[in-house]
Amino acid sequence: MKTTLVVSYLPSGEQSFSKKLLDRFLDKSHGKTKIVHRNLLKNHPPIFDEVSLEAYRARNYGGQKLADHHSKAIKPFDELVSEIKAADYVVFVFPMHNFSLPGVVKTYIDAVFFHGELFQYTATGPQGLMGNTKAAILYASGGAYEPGNPYNVVPPVLDIDLGFAGFGEKRYINVGGTLGGPDGLAKSLEAAQTQVDKLVADWYAA
């Protein structure tokens, strides 16, 4: 059975429309994939400091063997890198904050985008190493944004990051207008849930 890594940040709890999409995904995919859940609300990803950044540069760019204090400093990053590399599918779930990713989600991305692991530089330029992995982004936004709206920075930012790492597929599923009227919100949620159903059917087809 293939593995799906769920990376979530859901500060609104049960009231979260992002969580409604996640619940739909988990219900529809039950028994079809092994779920590994990385909850960023409960377990914040590490942030580089002087020691861990020095270790990363020395090992991943310089090919150096690390001293014990460097190995210890970079270990929390390595655990996250191993986890995402082991996944066949990655599902990011979060609310839009100030038109973009919540800070903790960007911190997670910074913590796993390691040279020699998710990407590498070659004589002909950068090469993504995650071509066999598919990604989906389930997110809610207070406003309702048409594709290409400059106020919705989530897709272009992740297109760059996930594209650089070479992910084989990227799908964005958005519940828009959570701060709007109930009728429009209901339609948006229903449309997003339908997209989740199709995602599960496409990914986990027998």
Describe this structure in words.
- The chain contains six helices and seven strands; from the N terminus they run βαβααβαβββαβα.
- With 206 residues, the chain is of the alpha/beta class.
- It has one domain (3-203): Rossmann fold.
- The strands form two sheets. Strands 2-1-3-6-7 form a five-stranded parallel sheet, sandwiched between helices. Strands 4-5 form a two-stranded antiparallel ribbon.
Overall mean pLDDT score? Answer: 96
Helix content: 40-55%
What's the end-to-end separation, in Å?
Answer: 11 Å
Summarize the biggest pleated sheet.
Answer: 5 strands, parallel
What's the CATH H-level homologous superfamily? Flavodoxin domain
CATH class descriptor name: Alpha Beta
Strand content: 15-25%
Annotated CATH architecture: 3-Layer(aba) Sandwich
- The quaternary structure here is single chain
**Count of alpha and pi helical runs:** 6
Q: Unreliable runs, pLDDT <50, ≥5 residues?
A: none
Strand order, sheet with most strands: 2-1-3-6-7
Task: Give a quick set of tags describing it.
globular; two-stranded antiparallel sheet; alpha/beta; Rossmann fold; 6 helices; about 210 residues
